[in-house]
Amino acid sequence: MLAQFTGKEQRNWDDLLPEMTLALDTSVCEATGYSPAFLVQGREPRAPKALYDEQTFGTGHTMTTPEAKATKMRVIFEMVRRNQQTASIEQARHYNLRRRKWRPVVGDRVLVKEHHLSKATENFGAKLAPKYAGPYRVMNFVSPVIVELDKVHNGKRRTAHLSELKPFYDDEEADAAESPKILPRHAPEPNSTQGEE
User: Which of 99, 134, 157 is the last residue of a domain?
Assistant: First the structure.
């Protein structure tokens, strides 16, 4: 996220940390089905400029007893545990698919790993720079492991080792794999006595 928002202007990356932290803490995690803030605090945090009571789950004018809240969180943690197991199996399946032996052929479009160097005088940090460049088209095999590449948009030629290449997919070619089946976002309210403030 920092790399995407800083772009070429990398001097202000630390100014973005509060917003990035809030975005990560309040985003629903695909593996658990809940946001990190909800699992830690048992409620969603108050978002800036939001109609908190109207738009945030678990708020309003009802009061939950500590015992009822603990029961609810135990149910949620059990759901999270099952969701994480499902997500782990699905992630392992996708990882194993990517680990299949891949070798490009002449004409394939690929991305090439970049080896940036940080330059303090130009306020450029290699860690925030794009990891791959392209797309390139495979033109020729110089050796069994070295390929000659031609950049698709400007025709610039270069060579690269097979270990530094990965397939390039546009939006139509992207793999639309099924997402893991995650349990419902919120647990049902346990039977408890609730009072009004």
Answer: 99
Dihedral of CA atoms 32, 33, 36, 38 in degrees, nearest 10, equals -130
Question: Mean pLDDT over all residues of the chain?
Answer: 78
Does residue 182 form part of some domain?
Answer: no
Contact 26, 50 (CB under 8 A): no
Mean pLDDT of 141-159: 88
CA distances from 197 to 51, 61, 68, 107, 194 (A): 19, 6, 16, 69, 10
Whether residue 181 is predicted with pLDDT greater than 70 in this model: the reply is no
Residue 123 domain boundaries: 109-167
8 within a domain of the structure (yes/no): yes
pTM above 0.85, yes or no: no
CA nearest to 34, candidates 90, 86, 77: 77
